[in-house]
Design goal:
2 domains, 28% strand, disordered C terminus
């Protein structure tokens, strides 16, 4: 068996002339917790849906656990679990009944069903609520039950599509703990999609940043941040003139400057030497510094560097929601 859990080569998906995924090349190793980071509408869910055999690629190839997604889709499905972005539990059933129904869909051996359900409920800490109706569950409990359902048939690869979307900060932290535990203790390969920078930074061994259907950067969170080459200084000054910008760029330790309205963001090396030079330069240009702050780079800064813009909101969330609903129906036919 290959040591690669997921591998894609020039994976492409088009819809009526619109390219949603444009040449994705990706390798995810067995046991890795890999993040697909990007804004809504960037192509994350479409890529995941192709890997799960819900959508067929327009071009390119991909394997999951060594099996081709187009030639051997049934075998791929036996090796994967998936947690959809949108809720997909039956809230008129209990947690245990939801899991039992899923076990039958995936043809879990009858004699193993009860044991597997009890084991997985223990892992996600829902044993005491297993026989309550799902409609009485909190949002975090429902998400944990969906993760449990995705694990019930012992998949080798677990796909999590925006696993903490819409959850409060405390519940998100709890879900992060479960995801980390699954990866470390159960040795499950996990691919998660997210547009939360802190989530990708906290959880993932490696990250692929995707924008407009293309991977623009890929590495560990630490190395991605180090690729910026310095600390970030943010300052507001009045007035911001062309003379000021030209003079700031001539400071030896200033590597990059971006401007948003009255705010300047500078990537600098040796910030202790650079900050006094910034004040000298603004004074020489007859500009007043109103505020100034120094911090280490974040994934937000990395995203800005490689895409040229901040994370944007989805332009048509209703359309995306309907597409995901169709995908889920296909998955359970």
């Amino acid at each position: 068996m290959t040591t690669d859990a997921v591998q894609t080569t020039n994976l492409i998906k088009t819809y009526n002339g619109l390219t949603a995924v444009n040449g994705i090349n990706l390798t995810i190793h067995q046991g890795e917790l890999f993040g697909f980071l990007g804004p809504n509408g960037a192509g994350k869910t479409t890529t995941l849906s192709m890997l799960c055999t819900i959508l067929k690629p327009t071009n390119g190839t991909a394997t999951v656990w060594g099996h081709d997604i187009t030639k051997n889709p049934d075998t791929v499905r036996k090796n994967i679990g998936i947690v959809f972005q949108d809720p997909s539990l039956d809230d008129q059933l209990t947690g245990r009944e939801n899991l039992r129904f899923h076990a039958r869909l995936y043809k879990v051996p009858h004699d193993d069903i009860d044991r597997r359900i009890n084991d997985i409920l223990t892992i996600v800490e829902l044993s005491d609520r297993a026989d309550d109706l799902v409609k009485t569950y909190s949002g975090g409990m429902r998400r944990r039950l969906e993760i449990a359902r995705g694990l019930l048939h012992h998949p080798n690869v677990l796909f999590l599509d925006e696993p903490t979307l819409g959850l409060d900060p405390q519940t998100r932290q709890h879900i992060w703990t479960y995801i980390e535990r699954l990866n470390k203790e159960q040795h499950i390969t996990i691919l998660l999609t997210t547009h939360y920078m802190d989530e990708a930074d906290h959880l993932c061994h490696r990250i692929a940043i995707i924008d407009h259907g293309q991977i623009v950067a890929q590495d560990t969170p630490t190395r991605l941040k180090e690729s910026l080459g310095g600390d970030i200084i943010t300052l507001t000054a009045t007035p911001i003139t062309d003379q000021l910008l030209t003079s700031l760029r001539q400071i030896p330790n200033v590597k990059n400057i971006t401007q948003t309205d009255g705010t300047l963001q500078l990537t600098v090396t040796d910030s202790k030497k650079t900050i006094p030079l910034l004040f000298e330069t603004t004074a020489r240009c007859n500009c007043t510094v109103n505020t100034i702050s120094l911090r280490e780079p974040t994934l937000d800064d990395v995203f800005m560097k490689y895409t040229g813009h901040e994370l944007r909101e989805e332009k048509n969330p209703g359309k995306s929601y309907m597409m995901r609903q169709r995908m889920r129906r296909r998955m359970h036919r």
